[in-house]
C-alpha cells in the first residue's frame, strides 16, 4: 500500500483480515475492552502507526465496528481491543465474523477511486473489489459479472467523505487508486 503520495494505491496483498474463531471469539471484559480471538492475523506494516481494526459480520451485531489495538502482536491470534463505541455491560460473548486491519483510520475526502488491471491478461468473471470504512460500511463493492464488461466501464467511483479505509478484497493483478483531496 502507498498512502504517502496522491493518488494512494492498494493491491491484492494489502488487505489484512482473519476469521474470528469459535462462539467465544468476541468477549466483553469488565473494563469495557474486548478480547478478540481469530485466526493468525499479520498486520500490514504500511498502515497508520496507531493500529486500528474493524469487526464485521459478528453473530452479535453489537460487536461490529471500529476498534483500537490495546494488546496483541502481528501474527498473533488473541487481541485486546478498545471499541470506539459503547457495548452494554453484560453483553454475551459472540463468535463468527471477520477482523480486518484499518489501513487508514481518519476521515478523508476521496475524490475518485479507480480499479486498474496491472497485468496484460483480460479481466475474469468474479474478480472482486470490496472496501469498507472503519465502521464496516461499504465504500465500494464491485464484482465482474459472468460476461465481463470491459473494465474501463466498471472502474471508477466517486465517494467523497469517508471515515477510514479498510480494503477487504482486491482481485489479483489489480491496483486500486484512491485520489484524495
Keywords:
181 residues; 14 strands; 7-stranded antiparallel sheet; 2 domains; mainly beta; 0% helix
At a glance:
This protein is an all-beta fold. It is built from no helices and 14 strands.
Can you tell me about this structure?
- The chain has strands at 8-11, 17-19, 26-28, 34-41, 52-56, 65-71, 76-83, 98-102, 104-117, 128-132, 138-143, 156-157, 160-170, 174-180.
- By secondary structure, the chain is mostly beta strands.
- It folds into two domains: 8-12 and 106-180, no CATH class; 17-102.
- The strands form two sheets. Strands 1, 9, 10, 11, 12, 13 and 14 form a seven-stranded antiparallel β-sheet that branches.
- Strand 5 and strand 6 (65-71) form a beta hairpin.
Protein topology:
Elements: E1 8-11, E2 17-19, E3 26-28, E4 34-41, E5 52-56, E6 65-71, E7 76-83, E8 98-102, E9 104-117, E10 128-132, E11 138-143, E12 156-157, E13 160-170, E14 174-180
Antiparallel strand pairs: 1-14, 2-8, 3-4, 4-7, 5-6, 5-8, 6-7, 9-12, 9-13, 9-14, 10-11, 10-13
Instruction: Write the H/E string, N to C.
Output: EEEEEEEEEEEEEE
Number of domains: 2
Parts with pLDDT < 50 across at least 5 consecutive residues: none
Q: Assign a percent range to the helix content.
A: under 10%
Shape: globular
Classify the oligomer: single chain
Count of β-strands: 14
What is the percentage of strand-forming residues?
over 45%
Average pLDDT works out at 89
Biggest sheet statistics: 7 strands, antiparallel
CA-based gyration radius: 17 Å
Helix vs. strand class: mainly beta
Q: Please give the count of helices.
A: 0
